[in-house]
Amino acid sequence: MQFNLADIVETVASAVPDRIALTYEGENFTYAHLDAEANKVAQMFARAGLGHGDHVALFLKNSVEHVTSILGLIKIRAVPINVNYRYTPAELEYIFTNSDSAAVVVELPEHQDTLAALLGSCPLVRTIVVIGETTAALAAAAAERSVTVVSFADAHNLPATAEFETRSGDDMYVLYTGGTTGYPKGVMWRHDDFFRKPLSGGNPYGQDQRQDLAEIAAAAKEFPDMAFLIAAPLMHGAALYSLFTFFTLGARVVLMRDFDPAKIVSAIETERLQVILIVGDGMGLPLVDEMERRQGEIDLSSLYSITNGGAIWSVSVRNRMLAVKPDLLLRDNFGASESGNDGAFSVDEQGNLRMASSPILTLVDESLEPITPGSDQIGYIARVGNVPLGYYGDEEKTARTFPTRADGTRLSVLGDMGRIETDGTLVFLGRGSQCINTGGEKVFAEEVEAALHAHPAICDALVVGAPDERMGQRVAAVIATYPDATDPTLADVQEHCRQTLAGYKIPRSMVIVDEVKRTPAGKADYRWAKEVATA
Asked: Locate the AMP-binding enzyme C-terminal domain: which residues (predicted)?
């Protein structure tokens, strides 16, 4: 069977209509209620002239409307486009034009005014859907371009039920990457591949994938009453994957407007959270700071697991979380916008990330040939099976990232590097694009960042390669310290790193900043770090 995401969500809503699907800022929505709201929104989009294959940019922070927009669009076979709301106007213009978006959904007044200034450069945008009041600037810009402005509130008066055309597993979902090292790229997922890979075939905690909608419905009815908090914004791939995963399971998703560690720790008690999803140390560090500060004050008994995806989660941060609650299950998922969920890491005594190889995850050389287990050769982590079709509108990068072997097998090769041990275990070294070549030695930025995060005075850090006349590149650190901490000297940091890192990996220069710049999802902004480190 070929799966469609909208069909899956509707199946679960029919199977467990009275179960809570979404909790947002204290308000609960059952599966029946959420599906009814999404039906209304779908009809609102359709009446605005949007339909099968149309790309619609969601220039939104987390909200109920953001969720119903995603669901409403896939119901009518349109394509939601995730937009990083912190992008500069130039980056936003790139997203709107590169994605060929026919419409934009926008809420905040400042976002509306930014969109107004860009409309003249976005000739394909023909419709704007506004949540709340339309600003004068956007109304004027839309009138000048003859762009239709629709009020999101129009959906409220539409029927809660609707008939939609037959959908397909070939329907498209385009997910834009984080763009941490360059402009983001639109990853083209077929719905069926999206279900089988990012959503683990509807069974992330088991081995066998669901075979049809009846199995999904039956599994949802049996799934325990669990609450999953998504700390990341929905414009981030990890958050979108988690949203659809939990909706497929029939679980309760707890969503917040913004990442707020104090509110999250409070919600562990008030919402009886079982699982919290974070994105790397960018979220993990402030979260564990708050957990430590309020240890003994908040009832943490319901919290079963903290799960990471999309960024490096250092051993030091994990150990601090376990010190607060020793029985926590810490799950570190490996994946990407271009590959979905590849499985969970384990961590050895040296802090190395390890994972058993599998038919869908292997190590290859530059010729895409498998590397023999037990070899010391460093290669590329490659994903096999249910990979995306490619990058939207970019054949060159598609060919480079999604190559095809001579036997016709398509791969996803993102630049993650590693080695393979005799028993087939993959040991991850880091992203090749962040590899620093210093005097011929290769240093992976993530390994040094993990060591820096273990320093008691450092609250966040990024590592990049800075130009060096003698070594070609030197390891350069950009760090931020805790407000009540004394800023460490470079010598202090170097001595700390020597405890776990080889000498050539130790930072040779360091810049202290008020705040390390990250995306709203907590992902690293290496372009910014490079500018700071080399200024």
From this structure: 447-523
Measured from the Cβ of residue 343, the count of other Cβ atoms closer than 10 Å reads 16
Output DSSP code: residue 375: -
Helix 64-75 to helix 237-249 angle, to the nearest 10 degrees? 70
Q: Which residue, 278, 268, 274, 272, is CA-closest to 223?
A: 274
- pTM here is 0.85
- Of all residues in the chain, what percent are helix, strand and coil, respectively (each to 5)? 35, 25, 40
Tokens 């969500």 label which residue? 9
Secondary structure in 3-state letters for 270-324: HCCCCEEEECHHHHHHHHHHHHHHCECCECCCCCCEEEECCCCCCHHHHHHHHHH
For the chain, state the CA radius of gyration.
23
What is the bridge-based pairing of β-strands 227-230 and 275-278?
A: parallel
10-residue mean pLDDT profile of the chain (535 residues): values are 97 98 96 98 98 98 98 98 90 95 98 97 97 98 97 97 96 86 85 95 90 97 95 91 97 96 97 93 91 95 92 84 96 87 78 80 90 90 92 93 88 88 87 73 82 92 88 91 94 92 90 87 81 90
- Asked if residue 316 lies in contact with residue 450, where contact means CB atoms within 8 angstroms, the answer is yes
Residue 230, beta-bridge partner list: 255, 277
Burial class (CB in 10 A: 0-12, 13-18, 19+), 250: buried
Instruction: Please give the Cα distance from 509 to 382 (Å, whole number).
Output: 34
* Domain boundaries, given as residue ranges, for the chain: 31-202, 352-431, 439-534
CATH class of 352-431: mainly beta
Residue 402: alpha-carbon gap to chain centroid: 20
Angle at 354 between CA 348 and CA 357, to 5 degrees: 145
Q: Distance between CA 478 and CA 280 in Å, rounded?
A: 17
- Number of other residues whose CB lies within 10 A of the CB of residue 68: 25
Identical fold for domains 352-431 and 439-534, yes or no, is no
In angstroms, the CA 315 to CA 338 distance is 26
d(CA 420, CA 408) in angstroms, rounded, equals: 24
Does the domain at 439-534 match CATH 3.30.300.30? Answer given as: yes
| 295 DSSP assignment | B
The 8-class DSSP code of residue 397 comes to H
Interior angle at CA 281, CA 276 and CA 285, nearest 5: 80
Give the DSSP H or E segment for 282: helix 280-293
Which phi and psi (to 5°) does residue 109 adopt?
A: -55, -40
Distance CA 502, CA 365 (A): 26
What is the architecture, at CATH level 2, of domain 31-202? 3-Layer(aba) Sandwich (3.40)
Q: How far apart are CA 170 and CA 2, in angstroms?
A: 8
